[in-house]
Amino acid sequence: MTKKALEDDDMHGLRRTGGQAYSVRLSIPRDRWADAGKAFGTKTGIKQEVVRSLGTREKQEAIRRRDKALAAMREDLDAKLVAAGFLPIHGHWKPDWMAEDRMLSEALEARRQIGSVSDSVDSYDKETGVSESPRDRVIEGMDSFLEDRAQELERAGKDGDQYRVRFKEIALGNQTPFSLLLDRWMKDRESYASHSVISLDRATLNHFSRYLADSQGLGEPEDLMGFLRAQTVEEVPEMVLGGFSEWLMDDRGLSAKTAGNRITPLKVMWDFAIQKHILKGPNPWVGATAGLKRKAGKQKPDVRPFTEEELLKLLQADPSKCKRWAWGPAISDMMRLALFTGARQNELATLTVERILNRDGAEGPLWGIQVTAEEAKTMNSVRRIPLHPLVQPIIARRLIEAGEENLDAPLFPDCMPGGPGMRRGYYFAKRFPDFRRWVLGRESDKIVDFHSFRRSFITFFEQANANGASACTEMVRDRLIGHESKSLAGNTYAAKDLGWELYSRAIIGMAEKGIPEAVRRALSA
Fold it and tell me: Do 213 and 220 meet the contact criterion of CB atoms below 8 Å apart?
């Protein structure tokens, strides 16, 4: 391409006014002059073009401002046409290659190609004074490709500039729509994260959408995800990103710990985008939760396992007398199951007939429960846990009530779904604190919670190991509670499932040599 051709392309759509400031011109197709004239209310009844000042006398600055100005002018023209009852300037047609998904994919591929070649000058033309690098040539090829597509659209009476501007902004890394980032990340996330984690991701994105709208002085969007998808990553100032944690705590009333949990998915999403060359580093969320962790440590005392005395009070109390409600049976059964399995409340609340294992006794006398990927907090949480004989009757009774042939039937139908992700443990998590306060008093707040049954299980497991229960090893404990093993051997080389027989011995050993005798008696009473 000659130097003159390059200059002509640079000046496309630009002109100087009498005051020497640059203006940009948007031509209206001949067949729409009359429509535009009516929409704008011109005296002649037609309108052939829209001209707007760019507010600069500098040529290069005018070139930089042109594409965004044209896009804004086209949007304004379309809005006026639609308001007057006409179609947008080029109707609703788009070629299949102009579809958003394909355009984004091609623009992202162009960005990858541009970023993969050198920007060091390796060619110089003495006659024209033009120097080039491999990156310049890739961009020139892209410009030629975009010019051909724009001309094709123009010949069809459509808008080629809109396609060219959008494509080029993305390809050169000037704009990254959140829609691109969200689609790529959520698709990857769904391949390995559990449903509960993804529901928390969506809660974070909803909060973030509200925050971006608030930072722009807007009300809460009706469609939170739709609003977020329409935003541009590069147009969100880092100062705005930095204020998200304060907004979560001050405006939404979240604790420091919860605010930190809401920020973590954004850091993970940015890491993914940088790794896939969608965004440039560094990650603005790195270190964003450090201060929150310190603040959370000051706000909240350590939550601990239940003491023997507390367990006896909880197990001997009748939850049905706490309030006139329907939560008594669920609380009574789930406390006992949690203490003997170490399972989380949502893992228990979502149990179905199908997830009760070994009822035929093929692997030994103990039944068990299965935590699948759908309910698991992490992939390490997918596991099998044998049921001790002291709590097996709870499952037997609920199997009969659910109908043993109905494999999808929930064992805890009293735990109705709710909250983000429609989790069965959602309402239970709000009712158990009422029971706990009724039994242990409000002084137990922030000291023990339902998760303390899981802490007690781990404590009893360690005590059983110290008292000679050979099967109660650290690796077996990690497999049963669904934690990643801290040792390299346990995490990398050992089998993920150590076998039903070993797990069964560990559960029996934990109960016999770890759980206090008085607690066992309370369970068998």
Answer: yes
Most confidently modeled range among 89-103, 165-179, 241-255: 241-255
Say if residues 390 and 340 touch (Cβ distance below 8 Å).
yes
- Specify which residues 383 forms β-bridges with: 371
Number of Cβ within a 10 Å radius of residue 106: 16
What's the CA angle centered on 69, arms 68 and 72, to 5 degrees?
A: 85
Return the closest-CA partner of residue 506 out of 335, 362, 331, 342: 342
* 297-341 pLDDT per residue, tens: 555 557 899 999 999 999 999 888 887 778 899 999 999 999 999
> pLDDT tens for residues 22-78?
888 888 888 888 888 888 888 888 888 888 888 888 888 888 888 778 878 887 888
pLDDT at residue 137, as a whole number? 85
Residue 305 has a pLDDT of 94
Domains of the chain, CATH where assigned: 1-92 (no CATH), 178-299 (1.10.150), 308-524 (1.10.443)
Q: Measured between alpha carbons, how far is 439 from 301 in angstroms, rounded to an integer?
A: 21
Integer CA distances (angstroms), 169 to 45, 87, 209, 325, 335, in order: 36, 26, 23, 59, 57
d(CA 77, CA 32) in angstroms, rounded, equals 11
- The 10 Å Cβ neighbour count of residue 285 is 20
Burial label, 192 (beta-carbon count in 10 A; 0-12, 13-18, 19+): exposed
Burial class (CB in 10 A: 0-12, 13-18, 19+), 172: middle
Beta bridge partners of 16: 22
104-107 long-range contacts, CB within 8 A, separation 24+: 104/170, 104/177, 104/179, 104/180, 106/167, 107/166, 107/167, 107/168, 107/170, 107/171
pLDDT (tens digit, 9 = 90+) per residue, 93-115?
444 544 555 677 778 788 778 88
pLDDT for position 4: 40
* Conformation bin of residue 200: beta by default, left when phi > 0, alpha when psi is -120 to 50: alpha
pLDDT tier for residue 500 given thresholds of 50, 70 and 90: very high
Amino acid letter, residue 442:
R
The single-letter DSSP state of residue 352 is B
Tell me the pLDDT of the chain averaged across its residues: 83
The long-range contacts involving 197-206, CB below 8 angstroms and separated by at least 24 positions, are 197/377, 197/378, 198/421, 199/420, 199/421, 199/423, 200/261, 200/265, 200/420, 200/421, 201/265, 202/420, 202/421, 203/262, 203/420, 204/262, 204/263, 204/264, 204/265, 204/266, 205/265
Residue whose entry in the numeric block shows the structure tokens 């690796």:
475
Strands (E) in 199-337, as ranges, are none
pLDDT at 278 over 70: yes
Could you give the CA distance from residue 414 to residue 367 in angstroms, rounded to a whole number? 23
Radius of gyration of the chain (CA): 32
477 membership: H or E segment, kind and range: helix 474-481
